[in-house]
Design a protein that fits this description.
Elements: E1 11-13, H1 15-19, E2 26-27, E3 31-35, H2 36-41, E4 48-50, E5 53-60, E6 62-67, E7 70-75, E8 78-82, E9 86-93, E10 98-104, H3 106-110, H4 117-128, E11 131-133, H5 136-154, H6 161-178, H7 194-208, H8 216-222, H9 227-238, H10 242-260, H11 265-271, H12 277-288, H13 292-297
Parallel strand pairs: 1-4
Antiparallel strand pairs: 2-3, 3-10, 4-9, 5-8, 5-10, 6-7, 6-9, 8-11
Amino acid sequence: MENKNEENEVLNVGLDDIMRYKQIPYKSGDVVLLDEQDVMKHSFNPPVQIDAAVLVLCTDGMMEIEVETNNYKLFRGDLLVCGPNRVMKPIKLLNNTAFKIIFLSHFMHRSGIGYQRSIWDKAFYLGTNPMIHLSDTQITQFEEYYRLLCEKLKNPSSSYHSEIMQSILQAMMYEILSYLDGVVVSENDRFVRQGEILFRRFVGLLAESKVKSRFVYYYADKLNVSTKYLSAVCKQVSGKTAGDIIDEFVMKDIIRMLKYSDKSIKEIALELDFPNISFFGKYVKAHLGVSPKAYRRQ
């Protein structure tokens, strides 16, 4: 039988959806702040695909969150940093667990990050290693940023409110990146080459696309370069072809939908823009070694 339980269906959620909850006190068009008290007031049905970047800091107790297909247990001082459109599912939340959550729009998530190699290397590292452990001093720093954001959202009277919010968030993001000093070591702090910037823009397009084209020319066109140049840059920077990287991202979406969605395999194939179920089945078997139906049964 192909269908999953409805409770496993992924719910697409944006900042606008979160802001509709009237009792959430701290919110704007680009930022939403929550803590354990706000979460307990509402029912956020997992799993959800959130069209925003998400930062979760556990300040006491323990919580377990699944991101895509990876489980993360957060204890005091653990900070989870997730980019937009990640599928997240709360697994466990112990009594008296305390935490802070910050949702950032695409604009706020992207703004203010410079082009030094050390910055890009750390931001890229977080894409595959999203959890950082903070010291007591760093926890206090994060909580101060959170408190300041709450204050500014509560009293948005300044004529420079947007600029102030962006500056606070920029400072906070640099602070978070600084926590990775000694974990991510760049060869030097030179500015990133044009090819490396293009590669990260390519990966960013893939990460933020809900339905991912499987054709290199689609992304080359979006990035205003030739397919040959994009492929050459990907090979030089990552050692993988552009097609290989696209396949990795597409397969993550397929695995997520086979695992969580209650849609039929035919519906999944159509939603992910495959021409027919036969081609979809061959594509999945080529990458997973089994058919979609067999994988779903595992």
